[in-house]
Write a structure and sequence with these properties.
The protein is mainly alpha-helical. Helix content is about 85%, strand content about 0%. Bound molecules: adenosine-5'-triphosphate. Adenosine-5'-triphosphate binds next to helix 4 and helix 5.
């Protein structure tokens, strides 16, 4: 059995894990324009949702959707970095990996936009 399976895995401190996650977020924030766009859209969506008084449950759904889009974008960024680490040359597999990860963000964003449109329409029509 491999050594790493037998030895008890040493866990790093929780504060170090948080620190690493926050530094990963800032790194992606500095390097990825898409994250700027998504965070700006999130602020606009939250402000607009407050203005039209969507229900608390709908607001929770909106926050989950925003979190999903940002999380997927961060995973997309991570995958881009790994692909670039593996090869800087043009390769169809590199393209497939990056484009598929981008498609994951795209799919979730489209679904999120449709759900938000439904929430907004439902809220405004009920008034
Ligand atoms: N090594 C490669 N081989 C082949 N095609 C690649 C390679 N690297 C990138 N591409 C193509 O170029 C596109 C953009 O790749 P890049 O790494 O610049 O990401 P990006 O512009 O930051 O993308 P995103 O807007 O999704 O964050 C990829 O989706 C892929 O189609």
């Amino acid at each position: 059995m491999a050594k790493y399976q037998i030895e008890k895995r040493r866990h790093k401190r929780l504060s170090k894990s948080f620190g690493d996650a926050i530094s990963g977020f800032w790194l992606a924030f500095r390097q990825e324009r898409n994250i700027h766009i998504q965070l700006s859209a999130a602020v606009i969506v939250i402000i607009f949702s407050l203005i039209i008084h969507i229900s608390r449950t709908d607001m929770m759904i909106v926050i989950i959707l925003i979190g999903g889009v940002i999380s997927l974008e961060l995973m997309n960024t991570a995958l881009e970095r790994v692909v670039d680490l593996v090869t800087r040359e043009r390769h169809p597999m590199a393209k497939a990996a990056k484009d598929t990860a981008a498609a994951a963000v795209w799919w979730f964003s489209v679904i999120a936009a449709l759900i938000y449109a439904y929430i907004v329409a439902g809220t405004l029509l009920l008034k």
